[in-house]
Amino acid sequence: MKADNKVVVIGAGISGAAAARVLAERGKKVLLVEKNDHVGGSVYDYVDDGIIVQAHGPHIFHTDDFDVFKFLSKFTQWQEYDHRVSGYIDGKFVPLPFNLTSLSMLRKDSESIERKLVSVYGLGKSVSVGALMRSLDATISEFGRFVYEKVFSYYTLKQWGSRTVPDSVLDRVPVKICYQHGYFDDRYIYQPVDGFTAMIEKMLSHPNIELKLSCDGRELIDVGDEEIKLEGEACPVVFSGRIDELFNYKYGKLLYRTLDFKFERYDIQSFQPTAVVNYTQSEDYTRISEFTKFTSKKLAHTIIVKEYPRDCNGNDIPFYPICDQTGLIGKYFAEAKRYKNLTLIGRLGLHKYVNMDEAVIIAIKGVSGL
Predict the structure, then answer these.
(1) Would you list the domain boundaries of the chain?
(2) What is the pLDDT of residues 171-195, one digit of tens each?
(3) Is the pTM of this model over 0.90?
(4) Could you tell me which of 32, 59, 45 has the C-alpha nearest to residue 363?
(5) Which residue from 137, 207, 219, 313 lies 20 to 30 Å from 9 (Cα-Cα)?
């Protein structure tokens, strides 16, 4: 194998798999290394008693980008999916994102608040919780604070270990001034018929891709002063693991939150009214997901999972990057720029939470010049 035609990709999640496939289709010889005994990364799933179970909690493919949808469609058949989320609030299952139905279920003065929202913003519009809270109108700002307390305050404490929600988050979270339910507004909202793992396995089925499982890619490469080598030979390296781990934590560890999962099986058709229920006022878990509701299958049994967030330590799986307030990520990015043959992709490589479609876009663009 010629050195100028070889690329090493570390990590076989959705980012690494997309990068490997694009490179292979361009004629590159790709060595894809994955430390687990399976592909899929955070979207890894498996079949249990006829149910596709997502091992790391719920993942839904949604995008407005036709090119991403077209790319992934080469590797799976899709099932249309309408994602529904509820919040268990004041003893009721309330639609989320918060909308006019949610308002009517929780407030006796809902009609007057609805009239105010419609008059100021318009029926069918979406307004961020942050904008509502900052409104100079007393009725609207009080409503914004009400939504914050009912939906975000305790949930954020469980999810992030703090009740403080950054303004940047509150400015992204919508309140929908309508009665229509539905969590996403994207043009394409689908689930792969056979699951995400099967989709990625098909993505990696290419003669130019060599897959090594149960292999820590960092042990195969030598991170020198200005280039990274494989078996003494420099070649392009596409890295989707933790950037701080790549450089042996030389500037310190970046912070993450991890999750503990508790899976439960019940001999009933339905456990809860929607695929996901957020527990915003009670319980020590953040949410329950019911996997039969992610497909159109009707079975006599169901499987759920409860999620328990906590700080990420040791060998824990890092799920949620915590916003870096110390400047560490800047030091690691500066370190990475020294290596002309290194490309960083993925949530861990960039220390940034990204949706599935964003991960694919970043991966494809990242390897476009290799």
Answers:
(1) 3-42+192-251+323-366, 98-176
(2) 888 999 999 999 999 999 999 999 9
(3) yes
(4) 32
(5) 313
